User: What shape does this take?
Amino acid sequence: MRTETRHEHFKQPSVLGNILRRLHIDIPLFVGLLLTSLLSFVILYSAGGQDMGVLTRQAARMVLAFGLMILLAHVNPNQFKRYSAGLFGFGVFLLVAVLIMGTIGKGAQRWLDLGFMRFQPSEIIKITTPMMIAWYLSEHPLPPKPRHLFIAIILILVPTLLIAKQPDLGTAILVASAGAGVLFFAGLSWRFILAIVGMLASLAPIIWHFMKPYQRDRVITLLNPEADPLGKGYHIIQSKIAIGSGGIYGKGWTGSTQSELNFLPESHTDFIFAVFAEEFGLFGCLGLLTLYLFIIGRCLYIAVQAQDVYCRLLASSLAFTFFVYVFVNIGMVIGILPVVGVPLPLISYGGTSAVTLQSGFGILMSIHTHRKLLPR
Amino acid sequence: MASREYPMRDKLQEERLFLNRIVAAFVTIAVLTSGLIVRLIYLQIVGHIHYATLAKENSIKITPLVPTRGMIYDRKGRVLAENTQTFKLEITPDKIGKDPANLNDTLLRLQKLLNIPDEKIEQFHKLRLRQKRFAPSTLLTNMTNEEMVKFAVVRPYFPGVDIKTHLVRNYPFKELAAHVVGYVGRINEKELKSLPIAEYSGSTYIGKLGIESSYEAMLHGKTGYAEMETNVQARALKTLNEVEPIAGANLYLTLDMDLQKTAYDGLDKFNGAVVAIEIKTGGVLVFASRPGFDPNPFVSGIGSTEYKALTSSDDQPLYNRALRGLYPPGSTVKPFIALAGLEYNAISKQQKLYCPGFYQLPTDKHKFRDWKKTGHGSVNMSEAITQSCDVYFYRLASLLGIDHMHDFMQKLGFGEKTGIDLIGEKAGILPSREWKRKEKNQNWYPGETLITGIGQGFHLVTPLQLARATATLANRGNVVTPFLVDKIVSANATTKGPEIHKDVIPLKPDNINSIVSAMINVIHSGRGTAKGISHGINYQIAGKTGTAQVFNIKQGAKYNERSLGFKLHDHALFISFAPADNPQIAVAVIAEHGGHGGSVAAPIAAKVIKQYLGDNSADRNTP
Assistant: This one.
């Protein structure tokens, strides 16, 4: 009976279904991403001061990001696996290059100038780190032996520290959690996880010692934003006012006074969630979270359905990293995490993160649409 | 694929483990998301009334109170940079009405009334688009009395249009000290990113060049703020709390504008630079770079055509030649090289060397020529300095060797920044074997040692470095570090300028005396190359002329046939200090394409010295 349905489906495919299958697109995931991107335009129109220029630039980036996603969805996951180590090595090489050029120039350097365009190597590493770890661990039986674990942790620390040195704490967190995600899904023992958590907690004073003054400020600000209302606490205070004043139903689209009256800084980039919460209220927020959870759920489903260890680890880690993205950004905007420069995924204005995220989804679609129809 | 898989791999077990982890991840995500939701509920339901009050009716607005920028004075208290009150015409689009036609109508009527050029209207539109509707944008700055009267009469017919006062930076000396004092300009987006946001939240201007930029932190002052209850339209209701701003500190420079003017005017038709240093302190008396430019248009935003004219000019008026101009020192290095010769015992001061008008290395056919074709005959050190004999110094250079020359000149501060309290100083080039290997990847050639001995070749100096080395020589090896800010007077304290590090080069007094007496002969003997300036003074000046060859056209300069001849003229240089027996002032002059140091550069230095010592003659009599 099962074969028959499949047969029937094969015999009379809808035109759209046929096109999408050829494109290697996973429809539920695609719909979720499309909805989120459309939501991005709706909020950007309001948060960006109703500037059509902002929208057209964002649209151009979205087209690029979706294009890249579809392109990657076509690549067989075996190819990703084969080139994992090479791509990772290339990414680390670029990070070092950026660091050296940064030392020659002055101040923070995250960009590599190719002449015709500029890009951040740390974006490549966001994807290639989980690829590398997934490949490395999939070569050995799971759960990983201490020796493999040790090497995997080194492999995660190298790009993480290179990025943290730039300094770009937000991206470093994302890269570390992408790598750690793979370890977790590979079956890292709970005892080890607890040990790491305990160690980090006891290391906190040492980490504090090595933090840059502005990073310390952010932590202090989080604990007591009212201490410096004009300076560092300003973001969080204004952001909380925006969210709180939105209430259950919100002030309605383009009704955000906090952003409109210029109280809220970075209202269309990192703090766009505050505008969203102010305009669409608690219901809107729950809706947005649902949309995100739907995307994450679909990604985890893809991971479960994946047919080999590499694909499983990579897919689940990408799904998990996407959640970390959402959690870190919203957590910072609502004042429970320190301010680190992480945008709200797929919604915030800005190109690089959208392109990386969509590339990740492209890989997920590739994993899902290249499965062999054999009994497992 | 998976070629290295271990045989004992238990796929089922692995899969079960993975599913476990997926479940664990799901739970983690659910818990963390619940955390977010709880916090949102707390903010949006529990705290809603509190936050809504803050946002809607009584949102607290923090208005920055901008401090007044500190003034800049010269050493005699003359104003170099001040804040003058001006009037500007502002339009608040929101007060005119929602219909854009109203704004256009208002603009048209204003244009007719006050003869406003279209360009300003365009500029206004640009400014307006960056602003929120309820915030005013500026249409006219620096309104004249006539304009104000014209507008005042018809004001009731222009709702939403207001005259506002504001302080504008003004530089009364215009081009005379533009490079040193610098200017302020609008804060651009790049600067905004690196500035402390709170401190600059109300400021429009920031120092862009010179003292204005180097002392930005002190001149700016501390921003205060007023916490006010405002309504949704951001209209202030009442002030809750106010912290007064603290005005920026006033700076008193060591510069003397009388001397500066003498130096600047003295350069006359030549481009170039004059630097004079008070030897006892290191305070810079003159820091002139010609041509100058008027810094005032930069304050309100210079027009693009005006700016282009400045940047594309062959004379490069925006370039601070005294601080950043790199010139071959020419013969002005000779006293220093001679001193090196004595200090390293490479030569004695009585030893005579024969000058036939050229010098040849034993290994080379190339003839290194003297400026005097017939030669100077047999000359000792004093004669060689006085007459600026090149052959003597070719031979001395080859006796000393490049390593000794480099080491000694480095002690005098060549090849490194002087550390003056101005941003953007150039270090110049002091050539050495190492430098050449690193920069050109070539070995050092003996011929290059010779030309280094007469200040040609790779050696490049700034006028400031020359003045400083001269001052250090005059100060008998006590290193002089130049600085510009003498006093910083803030609301509650007066502090000295930059901290000066004292350093001494150990030099034999006899050797210094020999060099100084030779430098006196340059001006006060019959054969001296600068004897023209010795008249009319009752003290002695010690100096040295220099003529630097211009071997190629400056980079970036346009090929211009008419002016090419002039552009190939040599640079005229002169270093000096006076009075020779009790040195007070050191002066370095560079006149680009001026020809001869003695006839062009020396008289300018002499004017500065005579004026300075004339003013300070009382001090001079008490050695």
